[in-house]
Amino acid sequence: MKIALIGYGKMGKTIEQIALKRGHQIVSIIDINNPEDFNSDAFRGADVAIEFTTPATAFNNYMKCFEANVPVVSGTTGWLEHITEIKEKCEKEGKTFFYASNFSIGVNIFFALNKYLAKIMNRFPSYDVKMEEVHHIHKLDAPSGTAITLAEEILENMERKDRWTLESPEKPTDIAIHAIREGEVPGIHKVTYDSDVDYITIEHHAKSREGFALGAVIAAEYACGKKGFLGMEDMLKF
């Protein structure tokens, strides 16, 4: 498979190493210094582009990929105000877009566990729910896309909560997400249900970026040759 990389920071370099180990070719690398390469024959000849950049640049990158008819796999978070437009491009123009707030297989197992636990805890109003996420100091958005996904899954399955808030809840129906930025932490996510007599916590700790990078390459393998708006649930079929 011919892969184009958009974003060549620590994650991009890790994706490159894993893709090469799995027998793929890296045919184009686009970073902040060479955006003109979106128009290159090398980029246009890619089977798929894997995009890990910034919230400010991601949507424009997607549009350039669509113009070149290159399928996109993206793990950039913080741009979801444009998600309706992306879905319309996939539905009406036959574009291919695979998005995940977190490509780690372990995190997606954690998502499934989170939804199941929320369904159970919906029956026990004596437990309040709160969340915490910890990431490295270079992460630009807060809360993380993974934390937002976890919170939205709880909201879908818990009738007594109607929105998430950053840091402090403003009313009893809020889910508070405490976001911490420190050191080089790859990612920690914690969901806690607290009552007067006990508490229940589920949490996921990433040990390195490799789990995210491997998941992104596997997603690219899955998306290649498909059409539409895709995600980890399509691929993993939980």
Give structural notes:
The chain has 238 residues and is α/β, with parallel strands linked by helices. The protein folds into 2 domains: 2-103 and 210-236, Rossmann fold, CATH 3.40.50.720; 105-205, Dihydrodipicolinate Reductase, domain 2 (2-Layer Sandwich). The chain has 8 helices and 11 strands. The strands form 2 sheets. The chain has a 6-stranded parallel beta sheet, with helices on both faces. Strands 7-8-6-9-10 form a 5-stranded mixed beta sheet, with helices on one face. The longest helix is centred in the middle third of the chain and has 17 residues, at 105-121. The chain is elongated and about 65 Å long. The protein starts with a strand and ends with a helix. 38% of the residues are buried. The model has no long low-confidence stretch (mean pLDDT 95).
Largest beta sheet: what is the strand line-up?
Answer: 2-1-3-4-5-11
How many DSSP-defined strands? Answer: 11
Main beta sheet, described?
Answer: 6 strands, parallel
For the record, the count of structural domains works out to 2
* Low-confidence region ranges: none
Broad CATH class of the largest domain:
Alpha Beta
How far do the termini sit from each other?
A: 26 Å
SSE layout and pairing:
Elements: E1 2-6, H1 10-21, E2 25-30, H2 41-44, E3 48-51, H3 55-67, E4 72-74, H4 83-93, E5 96-99, H5 105-121, E6 128-135, H6 145-157, E7 163-166, E8 174-181, E9 188-194, E10 199-205, H7 210-223, E11 228-230, H8 232-236
Parallel strand pairs: 1-2, 1-3, 3-4, 4-5, 5-11, 6-8, 7-8
Antiparallel strand pairs: 6-9, 9-10
